[in-house]
Known about the structure:
Blueprint: H1 18-56, H2 60-63, H3 78-85, H4 88-119, H5 125-134, H6 144-153, H7 161-164, H8 171-183, H9 186-194, H10 199-210, H11 212-227, H12 231-236, H13 245-249, E1 253-254, E2 257-258, H14 260-290
Antiparallel strand pairs: 1-2
Helix pairs in contact: 1-14, 3-14, 4-8, 4-11, 8-11, 11-14
Amino acid sequence: MTTRTVPTTAAVAPGPPPGPARVRRRGGVGTVVRHVLAVVVAVAFLAPLLWTVRVSLSTPADVYQFPPRLFGDWDFSHYPRAWQARPWLRYFGNTVFIAGCVVALTITTSLMAGFAFALMKFRGRGILFGLCMAVMMVPQTVLLIPNFVIAQTLNLYDTYLIQILPWAASVFGIFLMRQFFVTLPRELFEAAELDGAGTWRMLFLVAAPLARPPMVLVALNSFMGSWNSFVWPYLMTRRDEIRPIEVGLQTFYGAEGTDWNGLTAAITFTTIPVIVIFLFLQRYFVHGAYGVEGGVRG
């Protein structure tokens, strides 16, 4: 009697699927690339600030040296000299006051005008909105002389009002708010109207809470524009008691040249408060700019 043996194949342990490992490798490479790009962008944005601080601590001879020296002698005497050159505390207070008023007025006018152009029906709405957008096409330098004459006629020259009122409305803010309100469902306002809400209640109790993200963007844009304004307050004011920081910085420009050490020192100690404020409030800025709060619940 013979027995037939059946050949058996050795069991092969299944290996790890190639797909997930390849995905992990690609994910790791992508993370490294993103981090490298983030570092490069951060260095590109921080380099001017770091170089400003370096020049403020350099000797006058090192400012014009080429190639520039990243490390050298440190001279801290430029900071007290620059601080004593102008009433910086007064400038800083004026800048905060002017920027705060401009932001408050800009948000109010942008909210109201955007709501009207988006949701209210009235004759000539499209024409008026087109005229508002046309203002963006006019260079501000063309209007300097007419605005100067108007300020002199209305006795607004050399006052706080002339630094606030011309920027109380923003075409960009009106456009942004109008585009945001257009995207909101009409049923939301129809329901509020059925509940007896009037136009003002719908604006401030329904539309305004939903419009917090674009309102933050409008506020940031208005604040930075007012804080960095130089030409307008320089032409429309002559007293240091009402002038902002940017006008005070022109002290270091003269016929004999530019005092780079004093200018960079003044830029440094006038910029540090803004940086500190942003570091404390950055999460509110980011959350307000990119996080849409509110909505319609069914």
